Amino acid sequence: MIQHGPLLERLLAGDFICKITDEDAYRHLSQEQTQQEINHYLRPLNRRLVSNDDNSLYFLGYHELNKDAREHLSSQFALTVQSLLPLLEWLQLVQETLGRDSALTAGDTIKLQEFVLRTEDNQSLRQRLSQLAGDRFFNSQSEQVDSQVKQIFRRLKEHGYLLQPHVERQYYIVTGKIDYLIDVIRFIRDEEHLPVDDTPTQEALF
Fold first, then answer.
1. pTM to 2 decimals?
2. Average pLDDT, whole number, for the chain?
3. In terms of CB atoms within 10 Å, which of 17, 44, 137, 206 comes out highest?
4. Coil/strand/helix, residue 190
5. CA torsion sign, 128 to 178 to 203 to 77?
6. pLDDT tens digits for 45-85?
7. Beta carbons of 206 and 190 less than 8 angstroms apart
8. Is residue 172 within 8 Å of residue 112, measured between CB atoms?
9. What distance lies between CA 146 and its chain's CA centroid?
């Protein structure tokens, strides 16, 4: 298992691995033998490798839902729900600002300056951006559109939803964690009956 050591450390630390974040690691995890070896190692830890429905993303789940696992999942789910509405609003804002016909998905590219310019030219979008940036998840203290957008994108990068290939170039690539987020939203909508689809725009995302 030495050859899987660095990968296991990342997974155990809570990393989500997709083609965008690490193509080599993703390809490695796509191999059935690797999956079996990693799951064999993780079994005593009550963990296992899981993927989303499209197999575009790998992360760790629990092998058995015992008491400790349920408590941990409940706390993680609570944190996800707390950030869900601002993230959903961001998805909608990007879709409307950039004139997209569908929700963001892994591999999509967002040019920060294009997003800024289109937002500045629309008073309604500026107001929504300001409210979104002031949310405690993004925690922007600025009143300038450029600074608000940069703070939002910085936080999304920190949480693994965006990747910035070049620090000096202001464009971002959407990672597979967005697909995971949308899966969570769909689960909440269908199973928990929480109000995440109150508007036609929200419904259209899914």
1. 0.81
2. 86
3. 17
4. helix
5. negative
6. 999 999 988 889 999 998 887 888 777 777 777 777 778 88
7. no
8. yes
9. 22
Task: Choose among 93, 95, 98: nearest CA to 129.
Answer: 93
- Paired tokens of 193: 């009956």
Query: Half-sphere exposure of residue 158, counting CA atoms within 13 Å on the CB side?
Result: 8
Q: Which of 181, 119, 108, 169 is nearest to 144 (CA)?
A: 119
Residue 118 lies in a domain: yes
CB atoms within 10 A of CB 122: 13
Task: Assign residue 24 the CATH number of its domain.
Answer: 1.10.10
Q: Would you say how long the chain is, in residues? A: 206
Separation of alpha carbons 166 and 145, rounded Å: 22
Residues near 58 by beta carbon (within 8 Å), at least 6 away in sequence: 11, 16, 17, 18, 26, 29, 49, 50, 51
Q: The tokens 């690797």 sit on which residue?
A: 34
- 41 with 133, same domain? no
Q: Is residue 93 part of a domain?
A: yes
Nearest C-alpha neighbor of 201 from the set 129, 101, 133, 83: 101
